[in-house]
From TrEMBL:
Gene Ontology CC terms: plasma membrane
Name of the protein: Transmembrane protein adipocyte-associated 1 homolog
Xref: Pfam families: Tmemb_40
Transmembrane segments: 52-71, 91-111, 123-144, 164-186, 198-219, 231-254, 260-284
GO MF, any single term: G protein-coupled receptor activity
Source organism per UniProt: Anisodus tanguticus
Keywords: Membrane, Transmembrane, Transmembrane helix
The keyword Metal-binding belongs to this UniProt entry's keyword annotation: no
Broad class of the protein's primary localization: membrane
Family: Belongs to the UPF0359 family.
Length: 313
């Protein structure tokens, strides 16, 4: 994921070389040089690589969402066990898995700027993004299926299809990163054309998929899709997000600074807001106290049908 502030770490890499002789000329010996080296190393690895506000905008929303899930976990698990919906159980477990991986990814941003941690950072980034991509694909595949039912067979088929796509995506990322040396997740490598070519293709495929769903929804074939307004609002938001990322990648290929900044902003929004947005759209209503509302709806329907007319006679 790109971070425009990562460019500053390149210019500061030579600072310790200049600070060393200066420290020896002051008469304080190697102590000052060592202190300067420590300060500059800390600044390069922790501050200038990302920036405080960048890290805070990632960590705070992700941590708050995990806390929210944990606070409601007991009541949610009771409802899941009571209603026995395999679909909701599967997606709730996936949401927890993706949220924890994403939180770790947000907390460990410094790894990509720390020598010796790049391989671990690449692995963490691949698994964190793959978990979120699995949710994206499986949600779309399940809701676009012809048989929308809470059955284990439908869920298993959806997860198999989603797992196939995500597995291919993960394999290609492994080949590009460890085989061809393309720095997909290293923010310091902002001018690598191969990196932006890969991400441009990746976002192009996602944008085309979301665009196709919207096209069918607003066409004469819309009857073949499910009448779920919340799902199409979700698709609209995801289409806009991937389109912005696609546009930013196109600009970043040419080395445009605005494209790097825009892509970094989109990545921060995606990692901090996507999982809460998915929860609110598809899972929140399931965990609400709906029994009283459901009884009220049944009563209104029966009253309109005249079942209680005899009470007034």
């Amino acid at each position: 994921m790109t971070n425009f502030s990562g460019t500053f770490s390149i210019t500061e890499a030579s600072s310790p070389i200049e600070a060393g002789p200066a420290g020896t000329r002051t008469g304080t010996g190697t102590g000052t040089a060592g202190l300067d080296h420590f300060i500059l190393r800390f600044s390069s690895s922790a501050t200038s690589c990302h920036g405080f506000w960048h890290d805070a905008s990632l960590v705070l929303p992700s941590a708050l969402f995990v806390v929210y899930l944990g606070f409601h976990a007991r009541s949610n698990l009771k409802k899941l066990s009571h209603r026995r919906s395999y679909v909701m159980i599967g997606y709730y477990g996936l949401l927890w898995f993706a949220a924890l991986l994403n939180l770790a990814w947000c907390f460990l941003q410094v790894w990509q700027c720390t020598p010796g941690k790049q391989a671990a950072w690449n692995l963490l980034s691949m698994f964190a993004t793959s978990a979120m991509l699995f949710l994206e694909i499986s949600i779309a595949a399940f809701l676009l299926g012809e048989n929308y039912a809470s059955c284990l067979e439908t869920l298993a088929r959806t997860f198999m299809v989603s797992g196939l796509f995500v597995g291919v995506d993960l394999l290609l990322k492994v080949i590009f990163i460890f085989g061809f040396g393309v720095p997909l997740f290293l923010d310091a490598e902002i001018a690598d054309r191969g990196k932006w070519g890969v991400w441009f293709t990746h976002k192009l495929l996602l944008t085309a998929a979301y665009g196709y769903i919207l096209f069918v929804h607003f066409s004469k074939w819309r009857d073949k899709l499910l009448p779920r307004p919340a799902f199409y609002n979700y698709v609209t938001v995801m289409f806009a997000t991937t389109a912005v990322m696609l546009f930013a990648c196109g600009l970043a290929v040419t080395g445009t600074g605005f494209g790097l900044w825009l892509y970094n902003l989109a990545v921060v929004c995606y990692h901090s807001l996507y999982l809460p947005f998915l929860y609110v759209t598809f899972l929140a209503d399931f965990f609400k106290e709906e029994d009283w509302l459901l009884d009220s709806a049944y009563y209104s329907e029966m009253k309109d049908a005249g079942f209680f007319d005899a009470d007034w006679e």
